[in-house]
Amino acid sequence: WSEHDVGAAAVAWKQRPIDAEPQPTPMQLAPQPSLRLRVAPPLPFHPSTSLGVTRHDVTTHGPHGRPLHTKDDEVTVGFHDLGTADLTPGAVLPGGDAADVGADPIAPAFGVGNQGGIRPKAPTTSTGTGHIVLFSRGDHPDWPDHIDPESKLVRYYGDNRSPDRTPHEAKGNARLRDVWAIGFDSRSARLRTPPIFVVSSDDLPGRSVCFRGLAVPGHHTVEAWQSLSSGWRGEPSSRFENYVVHLALLDTGTVPRSWIDALATKGPASPDCPPAYRAWLAEGLLEVTAPGSPGC
Fold first, then answer.
1. Closest CA to 198 of 150, 144, 147, 158
2. Do 91 and 195 form a contact (C-beta atoms < 8 A)?
3. Short-list 172, 264, 274, CA closest to 216
4. Cα-Cα-Cα-Cα dihedral sign, residues 102, 197, 149, 278
């Protein structure tokens, strides 16, 4: 085409009748959580953040212009974008193409190791807290983890399975014990607590996992002293003692990547801290009444 033809086509496009364009179906916002503490509500959806909104397929932009895809309430990010994308509860974190642990999506998404159920990231400065990822398969008889989408209660079993050692001798359990030893009865203690991210396999294909959300120690239905306890499991001939912890999933909405990246150096009180987590830092854990957390 000549420059004249291109210019004429552009003018014609801008002057097309608006009624001729298919109108996007409005995005239905999930019911907002009702918290007995001061929490800023999530930002409302705005059409300018949407690309091609339809009834069953929504595309929105994550950080750096990378897309986050929602299809029938299932949010997916690309494997190679896991280290830069914001994370929304219910997001599917897809496994890679490698035939080994290199396909694990948890490692690039959270900057942790690629094996194990309890995966900590250590702080790198005196002001950082790092964070912990708890990975649940949910169907293991020795680790019958449970995530209740209504009450937001997470029951998670530690990583000991040996009759020849005590619970705290397992590496992941030792990290959990260190976290619970901080205590959560003061703001200064909560500021030293590493945020905890929960992911689960949810019968997804390959190594893909579901991001269930951001959790804090304890739950309003569990006595504080019971939020970390130990018990015996296994067959009579090979019984072992293990930890079990109880946590509460917060209604954070999307967790900013900038906040996750800052945990190792600045701790949780950085400017991009999710409002619900900021409220927990200030007030501690109060009863949460909210709609169920999304699964995958």
1. 147
2. no
3. 274
4. negative
According to DSSP, the residues that pair with 70 across neighbouring strands are: 58, 75
Residue type, 172: G
pLDDT band at 290 (very low <50, low <70, confident <90, very high): very low
- Per-residue pLDDT reduced to its tens digit, 178-192: 999 998 989 999 999
Range with the poorest average pLDDT among 1-10, 18-27, 256-265 = 18-27
Provide the residue type at 118 as one letter. I
Dihedral sign of CA atoms 263, 75, 295, 209 in order: negative
**What residues have CB less than 8 Å from 2, skipping those under 6 apart?**
none
Model pLDDT, residue 293: 56
Which stretch of DSSP H or E encloses residue 229?
strand 228-233
Amino acid at residue number 234: G
pLDDT digit string (tens) for 82-128?
999 999 999 999 999 999 999 999 999 999 999 999 999 999 999 99
How high is the pLDDT of residue 287?
Answer: 59
3-class state of residue 32 by DSSP: coil
Q: Torsion over CA of 156, 81, 59 and 200, rounded to 10 degrees? A: -10
Which H or E run includes 23? Answer: none
What CA–CA distance (Å, rounded) separates 58 from 73? 9
Cα(218)–Cα(216) distance, integer angstroms:
7
d(CA 130, CA 118): 13
The whole-angstrom separation of Cα 174 and Cα 170 is 6
Distance CA 6, CA 166 (A): 75
